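Let us practice reading a record.
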Amino acid sequence: MRQAANYNVHATESLPQSLALHFISPSGEDMDISGMTLRGAVVQDGVIMLDCAVTGVSTALVTWPRLAAGCGAYDIFLTDASGKEYPLLKGAVHVMSRVTPPDGTNEAAAVAGALDVSIPETEDGSVTIVENPSIVVEELVRQAEAARDEAEQLVETLEEQVESGELVNEAVANKLPAALKDAGVELEAVMPPTPGPSSEATRSLGETRFWRGICPTAAA
């Protein structure tokens, strides 16, 4: 059975952090992990699943949530394209306490570590790891490019909504009434007209009133 590599994680209380992984072959070349998935969990008072995502052809990102101060343990498993699951990483989690209280608004995870991960070619080998700080830079570049692409997509969406009038309609329907209310302008509800007599009945009634006006005796 393939053996996981040992790697101890050092984190900070209530601060989400990430571990960047770069997969390489035993010969040192980039390893294609397309079709593979990662799953992991950390245990303190209870078991908390880790956020594991494949971010590129040979890269992945494992994110630790906000953890309480103290010690725990974790492990991560890799499932290959054929559906076989293998242990990948394991170790202790040391979470240092903090004096400054968290503000609770920062959900972005800081990249706290980066590893080159070498998968053995045989199922009875051991996973080997080497810390590689350059991966941190590559991950930060990837995140910046992803944020740029998201911003560009948002701009394109807004432009399309402006051209189609969708954005204006939404503003009128949702934001204009609130803005008028804030300005002290009261909006009155408009009641739909009540159904009246048919056009033919209205025409006959008008003709009767007309004849009564010009010829009272005849109308009587």
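A brief commentary: Helices lie at 134-164, 166-182, 199-214, 216-219.
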